[in-house]
Amino acid sequence: MAQKIVIGVLTSGGDAPGMNAAIRAVTRAALNKGLEVWGIYRGYQGMIEGDCKKLCSEDVSGKIQHGGTFLQSARSAEFKTVEGRSKAHDSIVKHGINSLVVIGGDGSFAGATQFAYEYPDISVIGIPGTIDNDIYGTDYTIGYDTALNTVITAVDKIRDTASSFNRIFLVEVMGREAGFIAVNSGIASGAEVIMVPERKNQIEKVRKFLKQRARKNKSSIIIVAEGLEEGSAMEIAEKIRPEFPQFDIKVSVLGYIQRGGSPSSKDRVISSLMGVAAVEALLEGQRSLMIGYKNEEIVHVPLNKTVKLHKTISDELLNVAELIGTYAPPKDPVEPKP
Ligand code: ADP
């Protein structure tokens, strides 16, 4: 007789709105398919410490609309060690858990890949959960859409005060080394300049823009991705202020508000699709993969690929961002070809 599937579900690393929806989907799908499911608290650290609870349907009631993760998250230095992972293995096996669903970012997936390699008796499925959207093999990660909407709402508000005083605002957004949040929130909020880590010499773009900026501009928004080689928004402002004393240059670092809030409908739906797909993958006998979402469809991606490969932003999107900011110098109109 086939071994009964007993799932442990955990959230690890940076939290993201929609993680609760994914836990709920894993739990409900598992229970409806006759499987047992345990919630593991505080990510890999809780796994090491055996901090877990068998979940029933009511445990995930009334959670879908909340940001954060009711299982809580953690960063665990101990899990990075062979001994830590061995303790984690012993502690889940004690409860009969033979399948793990890890909801987290690329760090969590690095840990999950290593764990799946060392313990072939445990099947490991990853669900991409990070507001940064920087995971290979998926168009979307859980929390990204909500974070984008949070940024756009904040920038719209900042623009009101920027207009009233003819100010220039550098708005720093999250994204770690990737510019997904920056480029998309920049386009959506009509930013004049979008600084992304994917392209070089971003500070020159700001200088160029400020040199041509007419006083009649009511407000100017410059979106600054946090992972720029030129430094933070604060450091960039310090560099450019002495060069442009005629302008009132302010900085707003949006920070952790980008991680919170009630998840958007898109995040709730994609989290639910991914959660169900994770359970179905386990039922198919899969044992080391990530559930992705590409071209409006669920896809399976080998877990180790998500760690080794890097997701890039399309040049098309970056070009659009550059083309529609107002810093471009006026040129003679291009004559249409006859
Ligand atoms: P995220 O998943 O959001 O990228 P982190 O990078 O902090 O967050 O990773 C979350 C956790 O994953 C870490 O605290 C650690 O326990 C585990 N982890 C990260 N990298 C590895 C690794 N190379 N080997 C084992 N575990 C890892």
Secondary-structure topology with pairs:
Blueprint: E1 6-11, H1 19-32, E2 36-40, H2 43-49, E3 52-54, H3 82-94, E4 99-104, H4 106-118, E5 123-128, H5 144-165, E6 168-173, H6 180-188, E7 193-195, H7 202-212, E8 220-225, H8 233-240, E9 249-253, H9 265-284, E10 288-294, E11 297-302, H10 303-308, H11 315-324
Parallel strand pairs: 1-2, 1-4, 4-5, 5-10, 6-8, 6-9, 7-8
Antiparallel strand pairs: 2-3, 10-11
Helix pairs in contact: 1-9, 2-3, 5-6, 6-11
This protein binds adenosine-5'-diphosphate.
Low-confidence stretches: none
Distance between the termini: 74 Å
Provide the β-strand percentage band: 15-25%
The CATH architecture category of the largest domain equals 3-Layer(aba) Sandwich
Task: Provide a descriptive summary of the structure in words.
There is one protein chain. The longest helix has 22 residues, at 144-165. It is built from 11 helices and 11 strands. With 338 residues, it is of the alpha/beta class. Strand 10 and strand 11 (297-302) form a beta hairpin. The radius of gyration is 23 Å and the shape is elongated. The mean pLDDT is 94. Helix 1 packs parallel to helix 9, helix 5 crosses helix 6 (180-188) and helix 6 (180-188) runs parallel beside helix 11 (315-324). The protein has a 7-stranded mixed sheet, sandwiched between helices. It folds into 2 domains: 6-143 and 263-308, 3-Layer(aba) Sandwich (Rossmann fold), CATH 3.40.50; 144-259, Phosphofructokinase domain (Rossmann fold, 3-Layer(aba) Sandwich).
Give a quick precis of the structure.
Helices cover about 40% and strands about 15% of the residues. With about 350 residues, it is α/β, with parallel strands linked by helices. The protein folds into 2 domains: about 5-145 and about 265-310, Rossmann fold (3-Layer(aba) Sandwich), CATH 3.40.50.450; about 145-260, Phosphofructokinase domain (Rossmann fold).
